[in-house]
Amino acid sequence: MKKALLVYLIMLTITSVVSAGILPDTNLITNIDSRSKICLDGQWRIIIDPMNRGDRMKYYRNLKQKHKGHRLEYAFDTSDYLSVPGDWNTQRDDLFYYESSIWYRKTFDYTKKPNTRVFAYFGAANYIADAWLNRKTLGRHEGGFTPFNFEVTDKLKDKGNYLVVKVNSETKKDYIPTLDFDWFNYGGLTRSVYLLEVPGTFIQDFSLQLEKSSNKNISGWVKLNGQQKEQKITVEIPEININKTFTADANGFAKIDFSTKLQLWSPENPKLYSVKISAETDSVTDLIGFRTIETKGTKIILNGKPIFLRGICIHEEAPLRGGRVRTEDDAKILLEWAKELNCNYVRLAHYPHNEATVRLADKMGLLVWSEIPLWQKINFESEVTLANAKNQLTEMVTRDKNRACVIIWSLANETDVTEPRMNFLGQMVTLARELDSTRLVSLAMHKPDRKKYTLTTNDPLAERVDLLAQNQYIGWYGNDKPRDIEKITWVNNYNKPLIVSEFGCGARFGERGDPNTIWTEDFQEQYYKHQFAMLKNIPFLAGTSPWILQDFRSVRRHLPYIQNSWNRKGLVSDRGHRKKAFFALQKFYEEIKNEKQ
Ligand code: GCB
Asked: What domains can you pick out in the chain, each with its CATH number?
């Protein structure tokens, strides 16, 4: 009897913990901006290893020639450098198309501090990273766009530490993304690397958000990592006189719950509060906005009011130079272009962009759709791929869950409807809701059914997600003419909001002609105008994000002169020139903005 009661109580605790949106199964440390850290960015020695010989030869040992007769066929000490953060493809001409392994090495001294644990933190490495410190294995991470960390406390020495990371950017059937995708496979240590210094027991992660539909109840949790689990936890928001204490349980979890009056975050007023979370052994600060997001019938409701998402899709292609976005300045240019278009929303496609971009969107008042790279032909039959997808989703949500700007977690893009896919993505929807019960969950769906000029969403996942999102290229791919776009009508059988999450066509900047001549700016402008006419006729349309803000590199775009390995659907060229369609969309959004106010 006693045992049954105990099991019941344990179950009850687990259920309440999960429903509050916690238990992310990751050791990821979040909010690194406010932590004590040493930046390891800069020049790293590299060995290019197309045959993965370094695995067998154990390059991580960083061996040095011992005597004149000692044959050693690699030497980090005299090798070339690559910059970190940075993709390798755009740093050296001979690495442009390189898709295999590069070994990176960084040396540094470190003065140990009392009661301090140290973690090597990587913003992202595309695609698989294996890491060692001073010959000792740290671990492996798979997935090119999310952060990860390894504890190195016991592996550090005062002088001459060497951190070795092998990054492999090959593509494989079971990977996410899989073998085929329409963006450039930039490899390497693409985001910053730090040594994070934290106390023996530290605040690993925390969540603080308004409860769904409430404009005053804040709930969340704090997760401690270390021996001293049962600590007093304080949450302070000085601007609104909040100072609340809670207690962490034997697992180091504290549940947070309180009511307050605050200014809600919105695109017009992206209000962020300075928040301090303290345990007895650690404290962190953050800038957090509070807002509610939900759907009612076919409307998206932000802070209790319907909102139309005036969006644009963005790839993480660095503006003006190409390559992966490396700095906040890169991100700023992209987001300022979105603002110039009169956007209040960006679809960060097709993978989690760097944290600086999301934090900037938070400050600039741009709502965000955040996505994991499950693009088209994923191997939905593979358990390994499913575990990887769950991990990438967990890492994305873990990193960005305190950003008010993020309103939609997207699970996939254009995946064909099959039984294995339903099972796979069904589990992903469940996980997304467990990790975060406050946001909307969606995916860019399988293409709608088409009967002549009538389009109907027909994806069984529509039942499970909060909003319908359809990509659509009528008048570009397929046999229709752009003028046919206006004949299209949409049917919605779900009483849920619809977002047209993509439409677009290619145009080379500076290419001019009549609107029927493909690849010209005039064709693109005209195509956009037909799309606007169609969009205006969708009564349940809640937003759109045309494809795409800026031209981006893609090796499947072979057309000489026009493409030269760039997808030219950008409204801005790879050199920052605005095409005619940019101004057409800007005007369309200006009109919508005025109408909806
Ligand atoms: C799509 C994909 C996007 C492509 C785009 C295109 O439907 O979602 O990743 O880049 O079309 O340009 O064909």
From this structure: 32-199 (2.60.120.260), 212-290 (2.60.40.10), 295-596 (3.20.20.80)
